[in-house]
Amino acid sequence: MKRRARTFLFSTTALGVGVLVLLACGDNASEPRDRFEVPEAASDGTTAVLPNTSTDSGAVEAGIADARVPYDGAESPGVECDASPCIVRLVGGQQHYCGVLSDGTARCWGNPAFAGASADPLDAGPDAAPGATPVVVEGVKDIVDIAATADRTCAVTKDGGVDCWGADSPTPTRIAVPTKSGQAARIAVSSTQGDGTRVTCAVSPDGEPVCWGVGIYLLESDPRVPFVLGGKVRDVVLPWSSATWSLTVTGFVVDEQGKLLSWGGMAEGTLGRETTEFVDYTPRPVFGISAVRSVSSAFGHACAVTVDGRLFCWGAAGEAMLGVGYVSDEKLPVEVAFPPTTWPTEVSASHTHSCVRLTDGTVRCWGGKNRFGERATDAQDYVYTPALAEGTPEDVVSVATGSYSTCVLTRAGAVWCWGYNAAGQLGRGMRDEERHPSPTPVVFP
What we know:
Blueprint: E1 6-8, E2 33-34, E3 79-81, E4 87-92, E5 96-101, E6 106-110, H1 112-115, E7 135-136, E8 143-148, E9 152-157, E10 162-166, E11 173-175, E12 186-192, E13 197-203, E14 209-214, E15 227-228, E16 233-237, E17 250-255, E18 260-265, E19 279-285, E20 292-298, E21 301-306, E22 311-315, E23 330-336, E24 344-349, E25 354-358, E26 363-366, E27 387-388, E28 396-401, E29 405-410, E30 415-419, E31 440-441
Parallel strand pairs: 2-15
Antiparallel strand pairs: 1-3, 4-5, 5-6, 6-7, 8-9, 9-10, 10-11, 12-13, 13-14, 14-15, 16-17, 17-18, 18-19, 20-21, 21-22, 22-23, 24-25, 25-26, 26-27, 28-29, 29-30, 30-31
Keywords: Signal
Protein name: BNR repeat domain protein
Pfam families: RCC1, RCC1_2
């Protein structure tokens, strides 16, 4: 007998691709210090920079937005579970992915050091490599939020607690949350390998944002004292990064009105606004962007989808990372153009490529040379504007990017992955270093 489908709606706002790593759970932080108040959102009526169509690098006409079909404002549809296991939330780190099931538990796969090394692949057979098949994250249940970074994953549970696993602890460990209530509703984590930057941010159930850890470009205060951002926010986003230095580490918060604000280092222009400070510890509005529904940040650049269905990117262009049709660093947000019948709803950025989910359930990706097929095409060349990911399911509701790999979540609660598989991050039950441009489903035991 077919089960009645159940619909699960998870907020996709600020699904960053990971973030700084948390402190060891034995850290005893002092009382939080409120260093500043979040200023009122700017209302100067300015607009973000449009694509530079004077270049010959494939830029789409800036006027395309005027010719587009009306946007209905609908968010991505929720997952409708009619089978088990059913994934309702998907996040990605550098070499691993995790999914939250409809029962509130989690499964992770990929690099076993970050995906839950204590658990062996379930029923994967003697030839399966550790981590190449999804494993149960033991001891963590009733998950309400989850975030992954380069080498760690953290989950918020229904009781407001936070459990983390990865580089510092292969098994889930409950950490102290230095909000006034001692509870979290949202979590963000990030790490920079070379200089030891490790920062965690949480938002309490009543909207209090607090960050802690070690990171001179994100934390003005003594590392032993939690850094209270001030004001009330909906969400906080930090970048996951495999970079050596943290000059470009920028944090983001989404305030109660949906306005995006940034703070931190601005070496690559990731603040998305003008400032005379090399490091600006005060969250201020990102230039020219209206209320946002999805934000993602990686090493050197960031992207945001607004509630009216527009995508903006800024920061270091690198290998066509901004998707605007040319390679030029942009300190202020630039709008990314799309075909007139589709609108972006969710974005996921990594240091190798970025992808976006559109209102028609398709996925488009850009950036990099598609070395391992991470853009779901056979071609190995640069793509300067979002290009259709080929062979993906037609009903994608969420997308997550890793280092040279991509996974998507469908409306039926299934996960499909493609790209790099050296750590087993495609969930195929084996590891290899071949190109995998064709999406294949992940089998969940």
